[in-house]
Specification:
- By secondary structure, this protein is mostly helical.
């Protein structure tokens, strides 16, 4: 027996085994399901399974391994270790169009953020000025006539006259 494929997902391993069985290759699954229930809700990539415990597809006859590997390569499930022959191991270089799109998206986000900050500042300052105007006491017409503006008094001050006493005569 030869190991041909391994994955953390039991469903993926079962699919690969089914694909190989359809092509006449006898397979065996190790660490597969112990029951025929759905296991999708129990799977998580954030908690990886150790390699020895991962489900694995084995080819029962060593002579079938090259053909099994070729089938998996055609389906895009297996990469080649030969340089330039694997679609899975090659990375595409980002083109300039996607870079320009990202730059424009960043600029638009920054402009929208600046508009939101400006609107928040305008709203804050407006509410503050309205609150200050509402808290200031309004002058009544009687107060406005009592203290004309040229008197030098503020709105909240009143002029009070204090009578003066005649000078006292010196005592002998």
């Amino acid at each position: 027996m030869r190991q041909i494929f391994t994955s953390q997902r039991v469903e993926t391993v079962e699919g690969v085994a089914e694909l190989l069985e359809k092509n006449g290759i006898d397979t065996y699954i190790s660490n597969g399901r112990s029951y025929q229930g759905k296991r999708g809700s129990q799977f998580s990539y954030s908690e990886p399974v150790a390699k020895v415990k991962q489900p694995t597809v084995w080819v029962r006859h060593a002579d079938d391994q090259p053909r099994a590997r070729e089938i998996l390569r055609e389906q895009g499930l297996l990469g080649s270790t030969r340089p330039g022959q694997s679609r899975l191991l090659e990375f595409d270089e980002p083109d300039d169009a996607s870079g320009n799109k990202r730059r424009w998206a960043t600029r638009i986000r920054l402009v929208l953020l600046a508009l939101i900050v400006a609107a928040a500042a305008f709203t804050f300052l407006r509410h503050r000025s309205l609150r200050d105007a509402a808290q200031a006491p309004a002058a009544t017409p009687a107060q406005q006539q009592a203290a004309p503006p040229e008197s030098g008094l503020r709105d909240d001050e009143e002029r009070i006259r204090i009578p003066t006493l005649p000078p006292a005569a010196p005592q002998r």
